[in-house]
Amino acid sequence: GYGTNVYHSFATGAVNPAFGRQFRNNSTEYVGVAINIPIFNRMATRNSVRTAKLGVRSQQLVLTEAEQTLQKEIETAYYQADAALLKYRSAEKALNSAQVAFRYEAEKYAAGRSTTFDYNDAKTRMQKAESDQIQAKYEFIFRTKILDFYAGFPLTL
User: Fold this and answer.
1) Residue 14 pLDDT exceeds 70
2) Long-range contacts: 136-141, Cβ < 8 Å, 24+?
3) Is 105 exposed, middle or buried (0-12, 13-18, 19+ CB in 10 A)?
4) For 20-46, what is each residue's pLDDT tens digit?
5) CB count in 10 Å sphere of residue 122
6) From CA 82, how far away is CA 119, in angstroms rounded?
7) How many CA atoms lie within 13 A of 149 on its CB side?
8) Confidence (pTM)
9) What is the pLDDT of residue 40?
10) Which residue, 18, 34, 73, 107, is the most exposed by fewest CB within 10 angstroms?
11) CA 120, CA 135: separation in Å to the nearest integer?
12) 3-class state of residue 154 by DSSP
């Protein structure tokens, strides 16, 4: 490092050297080394380590909770897809039954043994069964696409 001293005496009759001369003559150069070894830093390091360990443990718990939540969502999606498949199969059987019933009702109506009300009622039940079957089909497709998403497959139609 570099240092200098400059002074001025206000005493009467004192001889004061010029500022520039004082600056040159009173300069000093020095070299210093400083070392800091914390032996006891008020437990800051120990507390920092404990805080960091608690933070790591907290994040591990958050990760575990997220994994469990995801597992529940996947299981729920699987059971919903399974239920949608059963609903679709049931809707297909109901549609087949409604179609057979409508055919019989149409034959009875054509033969004059049935009323218009019974004919229209059978037709309406068949159309509702068709609607339910189509709805169940697309619900099953939707539920399987959710499972595909969780499995990492790209979503395509």
Assistant:
1) no
2) 136/84, 136/87, 136/88, 136/90, 136/91, 137/88, 137/91, 139/84, 139/87, 139/88, 140/81, 140/84, 140/85, 140/87, 140/88
3) buried
4) 787 777 778 878 888 877 777 777 888
5) 21
6) 35
7) 15
8) 0.65
9) 72
10) 34
11) 22
12) coil
Task: Extract the tokens encoding 83.
Answer: 């239920």
> Mean pLDDT over all residues of the chain?
90
Distance from C-alpha of 79 to C-alpha of 53, rounded to nearest angstrom: 39
CA distance 110 to 132: 27
Domain boundaries, the chain: 1-34, 65-151
Instruction: Please report, as a single letter, which amino acid is at residue 100.
Output: V
Residue whose structure tokens are 């539920």: 143
